[in-house]
Amino acid sequence: MNVLEKLRKIAQVFEESGIENPAKEAEILIAGALPIGPSELYRGDRELSREEASFLSSLAVRRAGGEPLQYILGSVEFFGLKIHVGRGVLIPRPETELLVEETISLLAHRRPPFSILDLCAGSGCIALALAKRFPEAEVYGTDASEAAMVYATQNARENDVRNVRFRLGNLFDPVRDMRFDCIVSNPPYIRREEIRTLQREVRDFEPVEALDGGPDGSAFYRSISKGAPRHLKDNGVLALEIGYGQSREVERLIRQAGFQDIRIIKDFSGIERIITGMGNPVRSSGLTRADML
Ligand SMILES: C[S@@+](CC[C@H](N)C(=O)[O-])C[C@H]1O[C@@H](n2cnc3c(N)ncnc32)[C@H](O)[C@@H]1O
User: Fold this and answer.
1) pLDDT band for position 281 (cuts 50, 70, 90)
2) For the CA atoms of 129, 135, 138, 144, what is the dihedral angle to 10 degrees?
């Protein structure tokens, strides 16, 4: 069988399994699994060995069963980094790159070295992207999942990022006595009731502890707003990813915790996705964020 025939067959299986973009996913699966360039995919003259064909079939069966492509291929690109993922760790999402971008723009004019804490670090994607962008910064990532911390450590090694440390534990516990110039987080924020309505790729394969934001989805925002002032230096920055419809509640929480100069940023779909604020302002100076930049 040649590669084009296999591509068509896999696309057909994907279509029958209800996968949204069957042809595109078949293409990505084959190109990601075999050393085959995009131009070779649509040529009828690239024969597959028996081993290659059965390898592709085994991966296609997994995808048809709902397993996300990123777990099957084992990695995803995030902010120019190759991030390894697999069962037990959340797959980094494109909108989280926006959180990284906003955090970078808030820190870009500060004089290094500074320190950054990524709470709920998962695969380490946010901490690693920031550590790479600011090589003089000291970056910490914490997460309660052992599997996530194993992936994060591997991702630091494989991307040759040395100014980052990952620590296992509940939220601020692993950095109990430390203060940072910036706290960033993409915490679990799905309402518990809503988890069973998510698409099967997420609901049945991604770790529930990476999704579950408690009965109202805001449990982590309450804990973070409460803990952040104790862990931020003067004029420290807080940057959070938020879910659909959560901006008002999270704004209220962080304002109540003393954060000022709050900004809400929309994602590519027009959804309010990122919220930032400045904490522990040096009150006597009357400085605003604009003065600090
Ligand atoms: C939405 S995922 C974000 C992962 C990663 N930062 C990203 O953006 O792809 C949330 C993460 O929070 C972690 N988590 C859940 N409960 C936690 C807790 N109590 N303390 C620390 N991390 C927790 C999960 O293990 C998961 O890795």
Assistant:
1) low
2) 20
Task: Indicate which residue's Cα is closest to atom 5 of ligand 1.
Answer: 122
At position 119, the amino acid (one-letter code) is L
* pLDDT > 90 fraction of the chain, expressed in percent and rounded: 88
What is the rounded average pLDDT for all residues in the chain? 94
Q: How far is CA 110 from CA 66, 131, 163, 252, in A?
A: 45, 15, 17, 27
First-residue to last-residue Cα distance in the chain: 60
Instruction: Say if residues 30 and 7 touch (Cβ distance below 8 Å).
Output: yes
90-112 confidence digits (pLDDT tens): 999 999 999 999 999 999 989 88
Q: Is the pLDDT of residue 79 over 80?
A: yes
Q: How close is the Cα of 187 to the center of ligand 1, in Å?
A: 5
Residue 188 known to bind ligand: yes
The reply, when asked if residue 204 is annotated as ligand binding, is: no
For residue 72, the one-letter residue type is I
Task: Tell me the CA–centroid distance for residue 117 and ligand 1, in Å.
Answer: 13
Pocket mutation for ligand 1, best pick of 209, 212, 274 (most atoms within 8 Å of C-beta): 209
Give the rounded distance of the alpha carbon of 34 from its chain centre: 26
Reported as a single tens digit per residue, the pLDDT across 54-66 is 999 999 999 999 9
> Are 271 and 244 spatial neighbours (Cβ–Cβ below 8 Å)?
yes
Residue type at position 293: L
Tell me how far CA of residue 195 lies from CA of 171, 209, 219, 274, in angstroms: 22, 11, 15, 21
Token reading at 173: 């516990």
